[in-house]
Amino acid sequence: MTDPTTRKLLPAWTLVAITIAVAAVALTALAVLGSRALPDRTGPPVEELVVERTALSPSAIELTVRNTGPDAVQIAQIFVNDVYVSFTGATEPVSRLATETVRLDYPWQDGHPLQISILTSTGAVIEHEIAAAVETPTADRDLLALMILLGTYVGIIPVALGMVFLPVLRRAGRSLVRMLLALTVGLLAFLAVDAAIEGLDLAAQTGGAFGGPILVFLGAAMAFLALTAVDRLLQRRVDSVEKTSVDGRRLALMIATGIGLHNLGEGLAIGSAYAVGELALGAALVVGFALHNTTEGLAVVTPLTRQKPSLGRLAGLGLLAGGPAIIGAAIGATVSNAAVASLLFGVGVGAILQVIIQITPGLRDQTGKVLSLPVISGLSVGVVIMYATGLLVAV
Questions:
Q1: What is the helix (H) or strand (E) element at residue 29, kind and residue range?
Q2: What pLDDT was estimated at residue 102?
Q3: Helical H runs in 173-282?
């Protein structure tokens, strides 16, 4: 047994460091000695490649591939629509989780489908399909300007339009305010489910690299814990005399943050869809997103019905909620990475869940009941609104 005097002489951090060092030495010895004692694996190598990004230029196709399997992969031949094509790049085997860029010489035709077959040195075939070939936009100043404009149309302007309803909301009674808060929860819950589905779909495209679907849950957990910590810090600054007023502003800030993180993922999807030619820019897109995201602005200002925030504060909340759509669109149009995208969608999910927890106490009536008739009505209307306006948006 350890001498009590020794425990007093050694600080806690020293004991922790010693314990970690002993565990590290033991694990290292196990890895070195254990690998020598175990037999070699039998059977053929396990080869897995995932195409993370496709860039098309005149008479050329550029593929960014990642090895998601346990063994190195050597690309031997590549076929496009069952025709052998010459390629450059990937002269050495692609090691686990590493990426390589392969350039194919192929005179593709605009709008035509492409079926790409990658043949490895062991005879394994990795398939990749391009539904409709379209030239990839160049990441230049014009593309950045377009993404800023698009992010403003689908993010900032709709959120600002929703926030204009604040004077109307101030005339609402207590029951109507609780109904509007419930509507906000319905809106956010729909956004969380939508973001989770998008994130899991993207994670499936990674071929399991970096955890696959785990990335969505990891991002959600990180965002939830981070926003919880931020909320605790903000809560410490609350003056007990003005607790109600400051709480409303704090809740509006948390809602704007959650919606902003969701719009970051939404902008990412928009930019990615535009880069591969799957997004039709036009009045239908703008109007669809305007109707869909206006409700987000309504959600931001609902907690402020009993406060009088300055125009500067309202502008800041609007930028926080809608501005990330610009950042997401710019990233999505220039850097396509399914793993990063799925992680960001997970971040949006976690942020929204934390905000829903913040709103829930405000739904209680005088008897302490949460699911009263106004709350149930608000939840239902919120979900239906997001579903109906979501039908107008195709990304």
A1: helix 12-37
A2: 92
A3: 174-204, 214-236, 243-275
pLDDT at 115: 92
Whole-angstrom distance, CA of residue 78 vs CA of residue 125: 9
Domains defined for the chain, CATH in brackets: 49-130 (2.60.40.1890), 141-390 (no CATH)
DSSP E strand boundaries for the chain: 49-57, 60-67, 75-80, 83-85, 87-88, 99-105, 114-120, 125-130
Strands 75-80 and 114-120, bridge-based pairing: antiparallel
> Cα dihedral sign for 74, 80, 85, 86?
negative
What sign does the CA torsion over 31, 74, 89, 142 have?
A: negative
Burial group, residue 92, by CB count within 10 angstroms (0-12, 13-18, 19+): exposed
8 Å CB contact between 197 and 387: no
Residues of the chain below pLDDT 70: 1-10, 34-43, 172-173, 234-247, 276-287, 336, 366, 392-395
Sequence-ordered list of residues with C-beta below 8 angstroms from that of 90, at least 6 positions apart, any chain: 65, 75, 100, 101, 102
Burial of 391 (0-12, 13-18, 19+ CB in 10 A): exposed
Assign 43 to helix, strand or coil: coil
The answer to whether the beta carbons of residues 178 and 365 sit under 8 Å apart is yes
In whole angstroms, how far apart are CA 109 and each of 106, 114, 275? Answer: 9, 9, 17
What gap in Å lies between CA 167 and CA 342, rounded to an integer?
38
Residue 49 three-state SS: strand
Question: What CA–CA distance (Å, rounded) separates 269 from 66?
Answer: 21
Handedness of CA 154, 197, 143, 334 (dihedral sign): positive
- Compute CA 30 distance to the chain's CA centroid, rounded to the nearest angstrom: 38
Cβ count near 160 (within 10 Å): 21
> In the prediction, which pLDDT does 35 show?
62
- Report how many helices (DSSP H) and strands (DSSP E) the chain contains, helices first: 13, 8
